[in-house]
Prior knowledge:
Strand content of chain B: over 45%
Number of strands of chain A: 11
Largest sheet of chain A: 7 strands, mixed
Shape of chain A: globular
Oligomer: heterodimer
Order of helices and strands of chain B: EEEEEEEEEEE
Order of helices and strands of chain A: EEEEEEEEEEE
Distance between the termini of chain B: 41 Å
Radius of gyration of chain A: 13 Å
Structural class of chain A: mainly beta
Radius of gyration of chain B: 14 Å
Number of helices of chain B: 0
Largest sheet of chain B: 6 strands, mixed
Helix content of chain A: under 10%
Distance between the termini of chain A: 36 Å
Amino acid sequence: NAGVTQTPKFQVLKTGQSMTLQCAQDMNHEYMSWYRQDPGMGLRLIHYSVGAGITDQGEVPNGYNVSRSTTEDFPLRLLSAAPSQTSVYFCASSYAGVGNQPQHFGDGTRLSIL
Amino acid sequence: GENVEQHPSTLSVQEGDSAVIKCTYSDSASNYFPWYKQELGKRPQLIIDIRSNVGEKKDQRIAVTLNKTAKHFSLHITETQPEDSAVYFCAAVLSGGYQKVTFGTGTKLQVIP
Lengths: 114, 113
């Protein structure tokens, strides 16, 4: 199993551009999430999904859209990039079995907005 | 919503000494507390977790304790080694449908050889 795969690994955008960060998992996990990681602020939840066709907002959703058309894929879209969105983005997935389950993270996408 | 505070933000210890990282949470409904280790430029990876029906859990040199009454939990690393140097994140998970995870702000641990 590849686990959670994120592409691209690095990206530089200009203010106002849009782009999609890709996330795919091959573990048949129901739950998927997007986080951003900024220095001194830990990991903050952007959007999450409990299954195909179901998404919801996390702590910092503004400026981002998500969709979940399949169990495997959970892309994150930046609608109009702003310098404040410069960050490292992590996608994570977890099993929705009985009891809490740990999250599996991708390698991250390092995004710079100029 | 849940709020997780983590201390200290940086910690330096001599190789072989112990390291302790402490976290507090605000929502008494949180019932799962994982700890993640993140090496520089890498993904966070689970190192140990504890559920609310357990007070302590150990895995070799790593242990976690949970005090539900006081709403705090701690990570203990004994006999530290240089490869323990990393950023450690605690988290609190609220059950009920989606497992909403709230992370602490991280502790940068440096083990000095």
